[in-house]
Amino acid sequence: MRETDIESLGEQMTRGETTARAVVESSLDAAEKLNHALNAFLQIDRAGALRRVEELDAAADDSRGALAGIPIAIKDNICVRGLQASCGSRILGAYQPPYNATAVERLNAAGAVIIGKTNCDEFAMGSSNENSAFGPVRNPWDTERVPGGSSGGSAAAVAAGIVPVALGSDTGGSVRQPASLCGIVGLKPTYGRISRYGLVAFGSSLDQIGIFGRNARDIGTVLGVIAGRDAHDATTANVPVPDYKSEIERELEGARIGVPRELFGEGLDAEVRASVESAIEAYRELGAEIVDVELPHAKYCIAVYYIIATAEASSNLARFDGVRYGFRAEESPELRAMYRRTRDEGFGAEVKRRIMLGTYVLSSGYYEAYYRKAQQVRTLLKHDFEQAFMQCEAILTPTTPTTAFHLGEKTNDPLSMYLNDIYTCTANLAGIPGISLPCGLSGGGLPIGFQLMGTYWSEPTLLRLAHAYEQAHPFTSHPRVSA
Ligand code: GLN
User: Fold this and answer.
1) From 270's CA, which of 174, 196, 249, 319 has a CA 20 to 30 Å away?
2) pLDDT tens sequence across 399-425
3) Nearest atom within ligand 1 for CA of residue 170
4) Does domain 6-254+458-472 have CATH number 3.90.1300.10?
């Protein structure tokens, strides 16, 4: 396993022990070599990445950005000019967007080198990566198991040591959940922290680009590069972007961490519970005060999330009609038949299920009973968090109820699949940030993660708490499949 993180790679390059070309080449080699086992990449861009390295080599030393020569992987629902953006769907297939997402623009400006596009659940709908039209991603810890979803390709690429960092998207947990199942760190920032321009919309009021890495410091570095106001996305906030790296080192003494005990009950695997309990103890030993908090409406989060997310998805996915993007069904007698056939052949089963569900909850007569009710409960959930954050800086929960499950284990039971998001989707509904960190291995050798959530714009606090934990309890295990 290559011990690669942004800081050590940067230092090695500065000292002349390695070069951007060597770093990027070994990342590309690993991506190509491991893709047979993992199916983490839908496109590997060797030529483009090596061209970028040449540009970087030619640039003056003082123009080197914070991510100069750092290889990075991008989920296939985030637009990179010249590369595909299939979103894991047949309906987009080899579609190539003519522009870069803002996050991608900013990564490029900081010198990062994009090595490819990662596999994901179709339109980011899923918790296991089995909904990709291009086959499932496999978990590097056990290739018979799922890596989590929907950003499973990005998570697997970081966990396997192919890249130090990767971008994903998180609508209900799709960065934190696969981070947890793959033994790495995953951050979903505050809604409005990172521009969604160039992120293909799923549930627009929930979607955020998120970051995978092997430690909190690297996540802070990438967040510092891509966060901030963007004229292309009116939902980005004009909140200053702090220097996350300097904030990370601040003392933890006196921090208060809230634990919602009611979330540690039914459905939580015993080994996961024990491991998360030991993370709570670790914080106590580090000088944090542990307080009980209540989130009385959290128990409704799955129902609320799957109403709001599907409602928004049904509207967002109306644009895929065979006219504007990607795939078009052959030989349709007339326009409406062409729309129907394109969508029938282009979308997978889960996406169709969501479009139908979303259309239903928005339809006249049901809107009041489902969609409006869900929005009302969403507001109550936000109030729960506001109350809780009066007593603590962060709330600690498990990230997922179980460790990585077997491929095929939940594919026939959408409800049990949806329950994977029970700890994560609350943060999206409230718009607050959450981070998942590895805290141990199960008896069967699978990673376990825990989650910290904070109030709006509290990323510095979350990263500081994460960093303190990492220093005291470094996670040093490696997956079976790795570079
Ligand atoms: N698993 C959730 C879903 O299927 C979350 C997906 C996501 O965060 N993109 O909707």
Assistant:
1) 174
2) 999 999 999 999 999 888 888 899 999
3) 8
4) yes
